[in-house]
Specification:
8-stranded mixed β-sheet; 14 helices; globular
């Protein structure tokens, strides 16, 4: 029935027993799914490949898809999470996973050997595993300070190509980043705005900016989450992780484009200095926000992030912000498709097509700021930070809140990616966002 399937057996070679699995992807695929059913591919690899030992995967590509191996590499990498704190009586052995792509032509199969495509495949796989590892890491270890160190490790791999600057703690307050500072000021480790810049294009050429929500843990603040709702909130930095992984992969491929990465890192903690409901925050955009929900913190940090981009990078013509922003995204577009909110039809089409190609699927949300921004009306500030009616397209509303902090003279494209659903599967980070970035920047070989 075109649904695909798999089977396994065991063979002996050189007096060793090996598991041999064969998987067939479904052929009955509808228009909003990836044409090669990458989520099914990830699930099959996860189910069939042993958790230990060396592995070789042979992927037979259709003749008309031989140039598209990198999205398949991304899907395979999602089946190999890198983070664990499990203990063992014996030290774990190093593991080698080899992926071979062959062409399904008539006659003898041909191993695909396109150096640029193979480099892109390696880069996106490494980016996916980086993002997944960060999402899986517990917040006692992955503090805002440590996340900044992870960014520095990326910079160190590309000397003279990538620069990094930071605005930290009280400097955020003094420079007017009231959203990011307000959310993160009660935590032990201070909030940070981390900026990475890569100039792969010509000097003065238009740039693309990536802005990530990096809430390394979200208690809900003084609007505290219940015990069942708080578990798993280490993943609330999934947007920042996906963008860092995508930035890394794009630079490794020497993408001929200028790219800015802005990560808004904070812990939404509880303490004597925590921001409160009824507080009024002055954002970097100059607009004021009356807080009516301390658990709607992601839009506050991202509002400062996009404002920073539009006020400090005049050559940016496309902004992509990415966040595990709303639980309502899962209701709107599900667990495999992010919701996208875009200020132009061209940007929406670009994002949708990038998702369909990369396998990081996404689907448009309602775009109607003139209708939905009424949800944030405040009698004492420019806006509130949470909607009055949760039944009125609240995922779109959350995105429009962020959009409201773009500079008024910004004329470029804006893509908001709410990936609360696809960021995690079975309590593991998926590395969502890396492939989407690679497709959006048109990385060579991807």
């Amino acid at each position: 029935g075109g649904k695909g399937g798999s089977f396994s057996t065991y063979i002996t070679s050189d007096e060793e027993i090996h598991k041999l699995s064969m998987c067939a992807l479904p052929t009955k695929i509808h228009r909003n799914n990836h044409p090669m059913a990458v989520h099914t591919l990830t699930a099959m690899v996860n189910a069939q490949v042993p958790k230990k030992g060396n592995t070789r995967l042979i992927v037979v590509m259709p003749q008309d898809k031989t140039s598209e191996i990198a999205p398949i590499a991304s899907a395979i990498a999602k089946a190999f999470p890198a983070f664990t704190k499990k203990t063992s009586k014996t030290p774990p052995k190093p593991r080698n996973v080899q992926v071979v792509f062959v062409e399904a032509a008539s006659g003898e199969p041909t191993i695909l050997d396109n150096p640029q495509a193979l480099l892109a495949s390696q880069a996106v796989a490494e980016g996916v595993m980086l993002a997944g590892r960060l999402v899986d890491t517990h917040p006692e270890e992955l503090t805002t300070d440590q996340f900044a160190q992870e960014c520095q490790l990326v910079v160190d791999q590309f000397p003279n190509q990538v620069t990094m600057t930071q605005i930290v703690g009280e400097d955020l307050k003094e420079q007017g980043y009231g959203g990011l500072y307000g959310v993160g000021k009660a935590a032990t480790c201070p909030p940070r705005l981390v900026i990475l810049e890569y100039n792969g294009g010509a000097e003065g050429e238009e740039s693309m900016a990536l802005v990530g929500k990096g809430i390394i843990y979200d208690t809900g603040g003084l609007s505290i989450k219940p015990k069942t709702g708080m578990c798993g909130m280490k993943t609330d930095m999934g947007g920042a992780a996906g963008l860092l992984g995508g930035f890394y992969a794009a630079v490794k491929c020497q993408t001929p484009r200028n790219i800015k990465l802005v990560l808004c890192l904070a812990e939404n903690a509880i303490g004597p200095t925590a921001f409160r409901n009824d507080d009024i925050l002055e954002m970097y955009s100059g607009k004021t926000v009356e807080v009516n929900n301390c658990d709607a913190e992601g839009r506050l940090v991202l509002g400062d992030g996009v404002a920073h981009v539009t006020q400090n990078f005049p050559n940016v013509n496309l902004i992509v912000d990415m966040a595990t922003l709303t639980g309502a995204q899962l209701v709107a577009t599900g667990k495999k498709h992010a919701g996208i909110l875009c200020n132009t039809l061209a940007a929406e089409t670009q994002a949708f097509e990038a998702g369909m190609y990369s396998g990081d699927l996404c689907f448009p949300l309602l775009y109607a700021p003139e209708i939905l921004m009424d949800e944030f009306k405040s009698p004492v500030a420019d806006m509130k930070n949470s909607v009055k009616d949760r039944g009125n397209a609240q995922t779109s509303c959350a995105g429009h809140f962020i959009e409201a902090h773009l500079a008024e003279d910004y004329k470029g494209g804006w893509i908001h990616v709410d990936m609360a659903g696809p960021a995690v599967k079975d309590q593991r980070g998926t590395g969502y966002g890396v492939g989407l970035v690679m497709a959006l920047v048109k990385a060579p070989g991807f």
